[in-house]
Amino acid sequence: MAPARKCPECRYVMYVQGEKYEPRGTWVVYVCQNKTCPSAQRNFPYKEKVFVGS
Could you read off the pLDDT tens digit of each residue along the chain, which spans 54 residues? Predict the structure, then answer.
């Protein structure tokens, strides 16, 4: 399970949109779930792809 992250724009908790498992860790795509976030108001919710080592 991926660790929790917060959106850098609004500091709201982000959810995991997808995970891709690899031998040395996992690629995780996080998306801001706050509908009032400035990024959501621009119709592009903040997304971040992060590698989480095992």
Answer: 788 899 999 999 999 999 999 999 999 999 999 999 999 999 999 999 999 987
- Whether the CA torsion 11, 8, 18, 28 is positive or negative: it is negative
CA dihedral sign of residues 18, 8, 4, 50: positive
DSSP-based three-state secondary structure for 49: strand
Domain of 16 in residue numbering reads as: 5-50
pTM for the whole structure: 0.86
Work out how many domains the chain is built from and give that number. Answer: 1
The residues with which 47 forms a beta bridge, in sequence order, are: 31
Q: How far apart are CA 23 and CA 5, in angstroms?
A: 23
